[in-house]
Every structure is written in C-alpha cells, then in structure tokens.
Amino acid sequence: MDVSFLGGPSPQRGVGVVAPFDFALDRELWRWVPDEVSLHMTRTPFVPVEVSLDLARLVSEHETLSEAVRTLNAIAPEVVAYACTSGSFVGGMMGERAMCEAMSRAGAVPAITTSGALLEALVELDVRRVALVTPYTVSVTQSLEAYVAQAGVTISGCAFMGLTRHIWKVPYREVVDMARQAVRGDADALFISCTNLPTYDVIPQLEAELRIPVISANQVTMWAALRRLGTRAVGPYQALINPAARSGPAAPGAGPGPVLPEEEQQQQEGWT
Q: How many CA atoms are closer than 13 Å to the CA of 42, on its beta-carbon side?
C-alpha cells in the first residue's frame, strides 16, 4: 500500500511524565491530551511503603526525580510533569519549587508538579476558598491543607477516605459522595486530590450539581503541562479547561446535575 500521499506523520510534541511506582491511571491522563501531543511515562523505583507522608517523601527525593527525568531525555520532551500530589506538597511551597528546579536541571526543559499546577489552577479560577476531597489518611490530608493555606487559600471544607493502598480502585460514586460531604458553605471550587484517584468522568457531573469549578489532580497536571506547550487540554464541560463552562451560583430552584446511571458507573475507570 502506497501511503506516501498522506504526508505524515505529524511532528511529535512530547510531555514527559514522572509518576510514582504505583500509579495506575495512565489512560486517564491521555484523555486530556490533544492528538498532536504524546505522553512519555516513567515511574519512580518501587519502595515497600504504604501511602503515607513517608512514601510521599521517598518518591519525591531530588535524586529520584532527576534520574527519572534523565530516562526521558533521549526522546526530548518539551516539558516534564511530576504526576503526584502528595509527593509535591509534602515539602510545602518551597519544597515544590525545589523539585521543579531539580527536574529542570536534569532535563533542561520546563518542569511542573501536580501541586504546583493546583496553585496555578486556583489562581486561574480566582479561588479564595476551596473544598478538598482526598483518599488519604488524616496526616497526609492535613499536609495538603497546610500547603494550600500556605498559598493564601482558605479551606472551606474537607472530606478524606483514609486509604493507604489501591486508591485507583475507588469507584466514581464514592468520589461523588465525598465531594458532597466536603462542599459546604461558600466554596469557590472543589479540588479532588491524588493522581491515583479516578476523576475524569465525575468532573462535569459535580460541576453541574455543585455549581462551582471542580478540579482534580490529573486534570490540573495535564492542563498546566499543556499550557507550557502553548496548547490546551481537551475535555467536555470542565470549567478549568473551557472558560464557557464557568458558571455562577445555582439559580433558585435549580436541581442537581446529571447523575451517572449505575450501569454506566460500572464501566468507568477505577471500577473493580
């Protein structure tokens, strides 16, 4: 078959992604990526530690990150993203900046982290009060609260799951239930933490129901990385990605947004 008339393939633009060894949602990241961009994934070495502050510190050591970025240099990504929320907030804002600097030195390209992307997204959406959902234990959740507070953002409510393993197996309906618990009062937005927690399909549902922007760890990571390339993340009905989806408070008498049917929920990512 003569395919010379096609003129392709198109030039490849790459985003390097460094993830913890237990990251299980590669395909969720891809759902935010436009066709002209490729993700190049690598993982940190395995350590026999459950999800905790200790694990967050281990998977975010500078030498670990630098070595991971160096494994990506041969394919020349234009930006490198560290896809781990707890690993990038555990050292506070100064620690997050130092991580980006270490990755940039190793790869000679711009570098971002999930927690740094979170703060960018809060500025983009003009959020002063945020509700939080996490799958973490209380100590890891408190570390996230301290990180967000350090950026000058008030925590308006919080719900956490207390998990130390298999976070990628949490079904969507549990994420939605936790979101409803966390959002009380006058939150400007909701953040769903942890790159290993499936969130893609619940974002539009929750935005329609709660009438505030809903952002998640994987979403902000891809949004910020693609911004560095001068392009945009893709995804339906998500306020962070599409400014037209940013709405004000619910009108009086407005009902909740669409709810995923039981059968459809079982087909979503993260279901076991």
A: 22
Torsion over CA: 81, 232, 178, 147 (sign): positive
Supply the pTM of this predicted model: 0.88
Q: Per-residue b/e over 130-167, b at no fewer than 16 CB within 10 Å? A: bbbbbbbbeebbebbbebbeeeebebbbbbbbebeeeb
Asked if 193 and 144 touch (Cβ cutoff 8 Å), the reply is yes
Q: Return left, alpha or beta for 237; rule: phi > 0 is left, psi -120 to 50 is alpha, else beta.
A: left
Amino acid type, 131 = A
Cα–Cα distance list, 112 to 35, 120, 222, 264 (Å): 21, 10, 10, 34
- DSSP 8-state assignment for residue 109: S
Task: Write out pLDDT tens, residues 74-125.
Answer: 999 999 999 999 999 999 999 999 999 999 999 999 999 999 999 999 999 9
Beta sheet of 79-82, edge-to-edge order:
37-43, 13-19, 79-82, 111-113
Tokens 């959740």 -> residue = 141
